[in-house]
Specification:
- The chain is an alpha+beta fold.
- The chain is 22% helix and 40% strand.
- It has seven helices and 26 strands.
- It has helices at residues 16-29, 50-61, 138-148, 223-232, 236-243, 298-316, 341-350; strands at 4-10, 37-43, 65-71, 74-76, 79-81, 86-92, 97-107, 113-116, 126-131, 154-158, 169-171, 174-176, 180-186, 190-195, 199-211, 214-218, 221-222, 247-251, 264-273, 278-281, 290-295, 322-328, 355-360, 363-367, 370-374, 378-383.
- Helix 7 links the parallel strand 22 (322-328) and strand 23.
- Helix 6 (298-316) runs parallel beside helix 7 (341-350).
- The N and C termini lie close together (10 Å).
Length: 385
């Protein structure tokens, strides 16, 4: 029996009824088969009775493992609801081992935290993780996973239903307000696809002096001087884009002859010191790394996503059984002129492949063999057929 995935979307905010409707649609799509793993994403307007909503999903799908969260908006059935809605994603995964977990950050000495509930990642093929951005240190957790299992893809995003104290995480039959929830997947072919929505411009430059996230020199010149030179070398259109805001792409895997889209970790330039000639960026860098200017707008993000999906389509050869889509709440109508942009691009790349997801406050996905927390990104977990 092959992997089979069904999704359901409730577009109106009916509280418990919305959970029930989305779950019933997913069950119908599976033809009555009992799923091994269910994901539930619910807009804030439907969370007042989330315990009853969770019970409605469980009674209709009877899955042994369930994962989910509250969100600003949800994705499903080829649509993007930027506010509200409920989306349910259900998968039968024959022969797979699916283990759920709930992580909590706990105090461990002065200004230190430890992470409780960490599962064994030794045999995992992929991890899906949803985190409350106000109570859980995502990046230290990703670093810990990288130390234990280099190359293990982790995909997911930050909950976005509200501000501090408003987190809703679903873990099997429980509702939690803090930490992170997830599943380890063993015996499942999950292909990560990460589109950071940016376009490289200008020359590649090598970091020749840096400490932490402070860059002193690029190509043996003061970093700010070299940055301004690089901007001056751009054509008119690129300078106009650069004028809206400059990003820096950092090559993660230096062991390749050239670098293109997908090889850079995109981070913002946080500060430029005219007197010292330094740049402060949103990531630690080391001497010898290659960087390149990046710009982000609707056209660049559209082009980048379609290129990333096309690469994965070529690698797969056949459409996937389904997909989980984690897209930034800064995308959607905030970035694109057309509605349902990311969901539509996914459908164009893979046909009627069932997909669901939510609008995230930060997206989790790999660049090279390391996982990062991103912004303005569309991260997709493709489940091979």
């Amino acid at each position: 029996m092959d992997v089979r995935i069904g999704t359901g979307l409730a577009a109106t905010d009916g509280g418990v009824d919305a959970f029930a409707e989305a779950a019933s649609r997913a069950a119908l799509a599976l033809g009555g088969a009992r799923p091994d793993f269910v994901a539930v994403f619910a807009g804030a307007a439907n969370l007042d009775h989330v315990d009853d909503g969770l019970e409605a999903v469980e009674s209709r799908l009877r899955a042994p493992t369930l994962l989910g969260c509250g969100a600003e908006g949800v994705v499903g059935a080829g649509r993007e609801l930027e506010h509200g809605g409920v989306a349910v994603w259900a998968a039968t995964l024959p022969g797979a081992d699916v283990e759920s977990f709930h992580l909590e950050a706990v105090p461990a000495g002065e200004s230190q935290v430890a992470i409780a509930g960490v599962p064994d990642f030794a045999d995992a093929d992929a991890v899906i993780m949803l985190a409350d951005p106000y109570t859980f240190p995502v990046e230290p957790m990703l670093a810990e996973i990288a130390d234990e299992r280099p190359g293990l893809p982790v995909l997911g995003g930050g909950t976005s239903a509200g501000g501090p104290g408003a987190g809703v995480l679903l873990h099997d039959g429980e509702v939690a307000g803090s930490g992170a929830v997830g599943v380890t997947l063993c015996g499942v072919d999950v292909r990560p696809c990460v589109s950071q929505g940016a376009r490289p411009i200008g020359p590649e430059m090598v970091v020749t002096a840096a400490e932490g996230n402070l860059v002193y020199e690029l190509a043996s010149k003061p970093a700010l001087t070299r940055l301004r030179e690089a901007i001056g070398e751009l054509d008119h259109e690129e300078r106009m884009l650069a004028g809206r805001g400059i990003l820096l792409g950092i090559v993660i895997d230096e062991n390749q002859p050239s670098y293109g889209r997908g090889d850079f970790l995109i981070r913002g330039v946080l500060d430029a010191d005219d007197e010292a000639g330094t740049l402060t960026i949103g990531e630690q860098v080391r001497v010898g790394q290659t960087v390149r200017l990046q710009v982000r707008d609707g056209a660049s993000a559209d082009e980048d996503l379609r290129a990333a999906l096309a690469r994965e389509a070529a690698r797969l050869g056949v459409p996937p059984a389904g997909a989980l889509l984690f897209t930034c709440n800064g995308r959607g109508s905030n970035m694109f002129d057309t509605p349902d942009h990311d969901a539509a691009a996914l459908a164009e790349a893979f046909g009627d492949t069932p997909a669901a997801g939510f609008f995230c406050a930060g997206e989790i996905g790999p660049v090279g063999k390391r996982n990062f927390l991103h912004g303005f990104t569309a991260t997709v977990a493709l489940f091979a057929a």
